[in-house]
Sequence to fold (433 residues):
Amino acid sequence: MNISIIGAGYVGLVTGASLAELGHTVTVMDIDEERIARLDRGIIPIHEPGLNRFIEKNTGDGRLSFTTSTEQAVRDADVHFICVWTPPQEDGTADLSAVRAAARALGREFSAQNKKDQIIVTKSTVPVGTGKMIQKIIREEFKGDYAVVSNPEFLREGQAVADMMHPDRIVVGSNNQGAAEVVLSLYEKIKAPALVVDLETAEMIKYAANAFLATKISFINEVANVCERVGADVDMVAEGIGMDPRIGKHFLKAGIGYGGSCFPKDVRALRQFANHEGYDFKLLKSVIEVNEQQRATVVEKLLRHLDDVRDKDILVLGLAFKAHTDDVRESAAIDIIRRLQKLGARVRAYDPLALINAQRVLDENVTYVRHPHDGSEGADAIVIATEWPEFRDLDWKLIKSKTRTPVLVDGRNLLNAQEMKKHGFKYEGVGRK
Ligand code: NAD
Ligand code: UGA
Fold:
C-alpha cells in the first residue's frame, strides 16, 4: 500500500521505516527542512536501535523517501498517518495546532489532487474528540470520500523499532468499519492481538494506558517513601506484589519519578480534558504531585549529609529521562540539576548519550565531564539520575577515593547498597533500608 507519514519525529520515523520494512511504499513528510535534508543524506536525528538499518535498507530499495512537500507525500498515497507533536500548553491542555495544520494541509491536497476514498490515521496522542475535529477540518477543504481512524502508538523510546514490530496489541478505532480494516491490514505481517473500537474509545485507550503506567510509578514511589521510614525494602516489595498477576511486575521500579516527552504531558492532558467535561480526575492530581515530590527527595537526601549544597560540587550521573535514549525531554535529571543550581550548588554532569541534548536545555554553568571518574575528583556528592547499566561497572572504589565527601544518592537503586557502604560511601537509595 502507498502511505504518507506527516511528522518525522520518533513516532513518524519509526512508523514510516517499519511500514516500509513490512513492504509498503512510504513517504515521510516534515515541515522541518533541515531534518528532511539530513534524512536525505542518511543522517538519523534520533537514537533508536535498529532504525538506521531499516531506513538505509528501505530508502535503498525505493520504498521509503522523505520530503517537505505535502503535495509530494500525498501524491501516490491513499492512507495518511498524522504523527506530529502534541505538546502541552501552560495549563496542561494538549496543543493541537500541528494536528490541525496537518489535517488542513492534507484536506487541501486531497482536493487539489482530486483524490478519492482517503484514509487519515492519527498516531499522535490526541484528546478524545480530536478525530472528529480532524474529520471536520478535512470536510472544510475536501468534498470527496474519506475516513478518519485512530491508531494509537504504544512504543517506548530506546526500543521503539522492536515495540513497533512486536507490539502487545494493535488498537484501531474508527466509525468506518472498512477504513479500520484497511488500517489493520497494513500490519497483517505482524503477529499481535488486534482491538477494533470506535474513534473515541481508541483515543481514550492511549491516555488511559499512559496514565495507568504513570500511576503505577507514583504508587511505588510512595510505597518507597514509606519503606524508608519503616525499614522495608521497596525493590523486594515490588517483587513480592508483582508476582500477583493481577498487579504485574512491570513499572514498579521506584526512583526519582517518571519523565520523558509523554507521561508528564499525557497525564496532565487527560486531567485537563476530563476537567473540561466537568470531571475532576482526583487520582491523577495526586499522581502528578507525587512525581514532583519524588524529584525533591533527591535534594532532601543530599541535604541530610551536606547541611547545605551552596558552593558544593555535585556530580550528576545520567541526564536522559531513562537509560538507552538520548532524549532529555522532561527528564527528572534535568529538573534535579536546576533545583541544585537554584540552591547554589556547582553541578558537573555526565551521560553516555544525552550530553549534547542536555547542553541545549541546561544553562552554561554546568560542567560536562568525559567520564564519571573525571567528574568525581573533589566532588562533595554524587547523584545517579539515570539507570545506565554501565554505571554499575564503574570503579567505585577509585571514585570514592577521589571524592571530597563520599555522599552517594542513588536515585534509581542501580547499585549494590552494601558494596557502596563497604567502599565507604554514605549511600542513600530509594525505599531501601
Ligand atoms: P517529535 O517531537 O519527535 O516529532 C514531531 C515532528 O512533527 C517534528 O519533527 C516536527 O517538525 C513535526 N511537525 C510539527 N508540525 C508539523 C506539521 N504541521 N506538518 C508536518 N510535520 C510537523 O514527536 P514524537 O515524540 O514523535 O511524538 C509525536 C506524537 O506521538 C505525540 O503526540 C506523542 O505524544 C505521540 N507518541 C510519542 C511517543 C514517543 O515515545 N515519543 C510514543 C507514543 C506516542
Ligand atoms: C512511555 C510508554 O511506556 C509507552 O508505551 C508510550 O508509547 C510512550 O510513553 C508514549 O506515549 O510516548 P517512554 O516515555 O519511552 O514510553 O518511556 P518509559 O519506558 O515508559 O519510561 C517513562 C518514565 O518512567 C521514565 O522516566 C522512566 O525512568 C520512568 N519509570 C519507568 C520509572 O520510574 N519506573 C518504572 O518502573 C518504569
Notes: The chain has two domains: 2-197, 228-433. The chain has a mean pLDDT of 97. The chain is about 45% helix and 15% strand.
